[in-house]
């Protein structure tokens, strides 16, 4: 029995590791090739479409100024750009601060949410903005984001040159990476995630997931889809699947960069990531139920990948860890030989290789400090995810059984030095 | 001139390289060549022929010919001729003439002797009242052919009523043995006389050997060490009978491998380095993987040959009377034989490779009590040149068994060299000491004798001491030096050779391919994991190379984004 469990967990873990290794190859290849199209694409940037930038904001007084500062400096014809701050039931000075920018910059306006969308979370706020705007392209940024000047430009460039793309996804970087040990881990994690999961999946399968921020999508698609799903905790993943099911694709174009703030304390991280994990579990279960009706084979495969990640892989890891601990005190007569140790060491090396290659792609990220953080990360931050996924699964199961209402957790913000890129001026 | 010296050099090298093989070949060649001609009417009678084959193969090389196929050349090449008549049917004149024209010593066994030798009248009448042979009482009454001849018998027997001749010289070079089938007990009494009178064998060395057997993966190294120390203290050499796998109870098809008992492996390797010979005792010493009982090469459940590689699908061997003809039965038996061969082949290769993989090189093969058909024996002969153990004469019936008093090379086993295990160690049974003593005493009657015994590694110290004490009472026996027995053990990939000089060589066809194949066959899942390891390692290396590459090109790359704040 112990042997059967051990081999099962070994297979589950290594299927995932091998898939990620494969994705890493794709991510690296994407890095080597994605910029080659830009000179050709630049030539087509003539009849530019109108763009609305949606910034859902709920009590964002701590970060909204730096965000709007960055928005005011966006490289895009201002007669074709509107920045909409969706002030969603804020009880602080968010509306006031945003209005000051609106008074100063004609392309910035503040939209107050109204019932039934008022105070219902990000999806509802975005739907409010969708109903109160008319531009051809919609960009979404979180309220803590400070995009690079040409971020919107590149997102629009992608959509203009790739008619089959419903949405264009950019890259996000961590603005407060140096603040705490946690933000350093998150910084490494996000860089790795984007090159491996986004870049790799795009390169091999033409699949990318819409993140919560720094993406552009065609209005026609959003209208056809009927807006954002207000029940979804991970509205981005949910939207991704519906887009693919329409027969479109989403392109990962890392030239469009934004900087965002990440949780600086464990408590904030836990709440935010629990929401993400639960959101993804909700999406996986929602669409797996009607997997037969999904038209896009690519997205069926991707759904299975999410299912494998959040259910099977973590099951394998937990079983493997439990067997390891039991075997320390009681001989389980596991028949596997030295190859188990060799594979364990190799899994660690693979992790190092994958993370280091993604850090090396970015400027100044593959430094000595980060190297030691990567070494430490495998045994600390990565293990925290196991507990988190189990907890999220428990929460989500409880919600489904007792039919509880979904509560949106608003991520807490932190004060920061970078004021929308001002310091580089 | 230049080429001539090169040619001579090559010739010398060729001669030197072929020397070890020749020495083995010489060991197996005997000047005594015995042709056994037989007549039978039923296939089960082949057990008797095989028994004769085993007996006479201790004196020299045997050739077995059915009377219907006899030709002059068969008799011409022989130094001795044996006719075994298992049927009373009339012998053709041609055959009789072939025998008459040949001047070699002849032994007639069973029926029809009077047809070859008109001068003697033999009344062929079976009797089952034989109680004594050459003044030695038999443990149970035996069957013999009641004959009336006028010559003085060499060996006489007794029935309740009178004395009867059993072995006699008919005339100058012809002998008669009044049996159509004899027991092991009778055979052992007759053997010295057949050897002395018919073969003319001269007295030679009498040797003995002891095998500490039943060493399995479950044997504790400490137990084996204690047993060996007992031998070492008395200066008695020993061999080690090792089984490389054991079926674990309640775990279907789970073999506990010897390699898992590292302490025992270390001890065995140390002994091997010190010159102790290792004998492979089967692979797992069991055929039935669910219950683990029985012999490894004989189906105990049906007391018959192995009819299926999977014991759960095995069935009882059909009898000859189930078939319309003898030929149909033989065809069926051959089909079963092919299954036996395939099964035995797999087990033997496993036995050799699992031992050699951990650095233990067996020089011979053995199996529990020797239960097997000739299909198994012949397969053993393909992989081992020496077999230690008992013999089974019938392919279908395990009751027809025997053991020789000297090294034999029966024709029906493709001349596999058999070192007999003809004695039993002292046990709790009261008679065991006297049985061992009598056994050694009996072996002394033979001009040459080989006394072989197995002592179980788990037997008590007292029993071992008693066994060794009895052996010491027979100084006529010298200890066999197993380290100098020429022997070959081989599979498709490995060849282990031991020469008479004591030198041992081990050749692998292709060391790495062999190891890969072995790993794949024995542990396919682990093998797959190692393949995975190599592939992933290649990718990991590639990743690190790219890390260096990116690092080197960092300054040449353009970054549009502002500096990270971390």
- How large, in whole angstroms, is the Cα Rg of chain A? 22 Å
Largest interface: A-B, 50 and 27 residues
Main pleated sheet of chain A: 8 strands, mixed
Percent in strands of chain A: 5-15%
Provide the structure class of chain A: alpha/beta
Number of strands of chain A: 8
The rounded distance between the terminal residues' Cα atoms of chain A is 64 Å
The shape of chain B, in one word, is elongated
Percent of residues in helices of chain B comes to: 25-40%
Number of helices of chain A: 14
Characterize the largest beta sheet of chain B: strand count, sense, and whether it forms a barrel. Answer: 9 strands, mixed
Radius of gyration of chain B: 29 Å
Strand order of the largest sheet of chain A: 3-2-1-4-7-6-8-5
The share of residues in helices of chain A is: 55-70%
Helix segment tally of chain B: 14
Describe the model.
The complex is a heterodimer of chains A (425) and B (566). With 425 residues, chain A is an alpha/beta fold. Chain A is built from 14 helices and 8 strands. Chain A has an 8-stranded mixed beta sheet, with helices on both faces. In chain A, strand 1, helix 3 and strand 2 form a beta-alpha-beta unit. In chain A, helix 7 crosses helix 13. Chain A is globular and about 75 Å long. Chain A starts with a helix and ends in a 23-residue tail after the last helix. Chain B has 566 residues and is an alpha/beta fold. In chain B, helix 9 packs parallel to helix 10, helix 11 runs parallel beside helix 12 and helix 13 packs across helix 14. The radius of gyration of chain B is 29 Å and the shape is elongated. The N and C termini of chain B lie far apart (85 Å). About 2% of the residues of chain B have low confidence. The chains are: A alpha/beta (425), B alpha/beta (566). At the A-B interface, helix 1, helix 7, strand 8 and helix 12 of A face helix 14 of B.
């Amino acid at each position: 029995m112990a042997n059967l469990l051990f081999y099962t967990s070994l297979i589950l873990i290594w299927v995932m590791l091998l898939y990620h290794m494969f994705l890493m190859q794709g991510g690296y290849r994407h890095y080597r090739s994605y910029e080659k199209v830009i000179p050709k694409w630049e030539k087509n940037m003539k009849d530019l479409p109108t763009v609305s930038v949606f910034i859902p904001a709920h009590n964002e007084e701590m970060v909204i100024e730096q965000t709007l500062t960055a928005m005011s400096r966006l490289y895009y014809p201002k007669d074709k750009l509107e920045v909409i701050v969706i002030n969603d039931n804020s009880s602080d000075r968010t509306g006031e601060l945003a209005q000051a920018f609106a008074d100063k910059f004609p392309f910035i306006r503040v939209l107050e949410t109204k019932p039934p969308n008022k105070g219902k979370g990000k999806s509802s706020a975005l739907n409010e903005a969708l109903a109160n705007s008319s531009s051809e392209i919609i960009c979404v940024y979180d309220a803590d984001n400070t995009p690079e000047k040409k971020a919107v430009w590149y997102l629009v460039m992608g959509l203009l040159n790739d008619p089959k793309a419903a949405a264009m996804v950019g890259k996000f970087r961590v603005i407060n990476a140096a603040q705490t040990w946690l933000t350093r881990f998150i910084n490494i994690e996000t860089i790795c995630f984007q090159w491996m999961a986004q870049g790799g999946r795009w390169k091999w399968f033409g699949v990318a997931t819409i993140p919560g921020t720094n993406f552009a999508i065609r209005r026609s698609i959003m209208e056809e889809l009927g807006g954002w799903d207000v029940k979804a905790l991970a509205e981005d993943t949910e939207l991704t699947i519906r887009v693919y099911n329409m027969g479109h694709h989403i392109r990962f174009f890392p030239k469009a960069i934004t900087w965002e703030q990440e949780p600086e304390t464990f408590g904030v991280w836990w709440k935010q990531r629990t929401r993400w994990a639960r959101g993804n579990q909700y999406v996986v279960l929602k669409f797996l139920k009607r997997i037969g009706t999904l038209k896009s084979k690519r997205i069926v495969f991707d759904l299975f990948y999410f299912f494998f990640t959040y259910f099977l892989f973590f099951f394998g890891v937990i079983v493997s860890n439990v067997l390891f601990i039991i075997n320390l005190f009681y001989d389980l007569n596991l028949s596997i030989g030295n190859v188990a140790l060799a594979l364990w060491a190799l899994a660690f090396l693979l992790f190092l290789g994958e993370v280091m290659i993604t850090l090396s792609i970015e400027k100044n990220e593959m430094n000595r400090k980060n190297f030691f953080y990567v070494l430490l990360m495998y045994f600390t931050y990565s293990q925290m995810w196991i507990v988190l996924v189990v907890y999220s699964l428990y929460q989500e199961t409880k919600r489904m059984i007792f039919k509880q209402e979904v509560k949106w957790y608003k991520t807490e913000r932190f004060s920061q030095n970078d004021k929308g890129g001002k310091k580089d001026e | 001139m230049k080429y001539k010296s090169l040619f001579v050099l090559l010739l010398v090298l060729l001669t030197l390289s072929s020397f070890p093989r020749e020495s083995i070949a010489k060991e197996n060649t005997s000047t005594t060549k015995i042709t056994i001609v037989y007549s039978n009417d039923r296939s089960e009678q082949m057990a008797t022929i095989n028994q004769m084959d085993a007996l006479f193969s201790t004196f020299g090389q045997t050739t077995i010919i059915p009377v219907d196929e006899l030709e002059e050349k068969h008799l011409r090449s022989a130094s001795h001729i044996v006719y075994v008549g298992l049927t009373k049917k009339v012998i053709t004149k041609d055959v009789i003439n072939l025998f008459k024209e040949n001047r070699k010593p002849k032994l007639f066994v069973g029926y029809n002797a009077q047809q070859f030798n008109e001068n003697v009248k033999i009344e062929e009448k079976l009797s089952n009242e034989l109680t004594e042979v050459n003044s030695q009482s038999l443990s149970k009454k035996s069957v013999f052919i009641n004959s009336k001849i006028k010559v003085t018998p060499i060996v006489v027997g007794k029935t309740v009523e009178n004395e009867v001749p059993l072995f006699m010289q008919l005339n100058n070079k012809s002998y008669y043995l009044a049996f159509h089938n004899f027991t092991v007990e009778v055979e052992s009494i007759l053997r010295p006389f057949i050897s002395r009178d018919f073969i003319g064998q001269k007295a030679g060395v009498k040797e003995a050997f002891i095998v500490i057997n039943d060493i399995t993966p479950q044997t504790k190294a400490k137990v084996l060490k204690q047993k060996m120390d007992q031998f070492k203290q008395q200066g008695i050499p020993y061999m080690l009978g090792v089984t490389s796998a054991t079926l674990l109870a309640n775990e279907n098809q789970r073999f506990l491998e010897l390699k898992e008992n590292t302490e025992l492996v270390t001890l065995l390797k140390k002994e091997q380095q010190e010159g102790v010979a290792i004998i492979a005792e089967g692979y797992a010493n069991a055929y039935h993987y669910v219950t683990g009982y029985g012999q490894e090469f004989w189906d105990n459940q049906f007391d018959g040959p192995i009819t299926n590689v999977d014991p759960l699908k095995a069935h009882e061997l059909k009898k000859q009377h189930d078939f319309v003809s003898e030929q149909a039965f033989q065809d069926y038996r051959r089909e079963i034989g092919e299954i036996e061969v395939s099964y035995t082949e797999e087990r033997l290769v496993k036995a050799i490779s699992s031992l050699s993989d951990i650095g233990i090189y067996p020089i011979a093969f053995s199996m529990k009590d020797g239960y097997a058909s000739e299909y198994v024996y012949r397969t053993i002969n393909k992989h081992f040149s020496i077999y230690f153990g008992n013999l089974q004469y019938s392919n279908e019936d395990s009751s027809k068994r025997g053991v020789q008093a000297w090294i034999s090379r029966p024709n029906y086993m493709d001349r596999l060299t058999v070192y007999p295990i003809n004695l039993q160690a002292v046990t709790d049974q009261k008679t065991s000491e006297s049985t061992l003593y009598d056994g050694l005493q009996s072996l002394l009657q033979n001009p040459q004798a080989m006394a072989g015994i197995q002592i179980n590694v788990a037997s008590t110290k007292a029993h071992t001491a008693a066994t060794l004490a009895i052996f010491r009472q027979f100084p006529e026996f010298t200890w066999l030096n197993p380290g100098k027995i020429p022997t070959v053990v081989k599979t498709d990939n490995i060849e282990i050779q031991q020469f008479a000089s004591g030198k041992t060589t081990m050749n692998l066809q292709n060391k790495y391919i062999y190891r890969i194949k072995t790993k794949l066959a024995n542990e396919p899942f682990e093998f797959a994991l190692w393949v995975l390891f190599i592939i992933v390692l290649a990718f990991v290396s590639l990743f690190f190379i790219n890390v260096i590459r990116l690092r080197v090109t960092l300054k040449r790359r353009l970054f549009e984004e502002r500096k990270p704040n971390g």
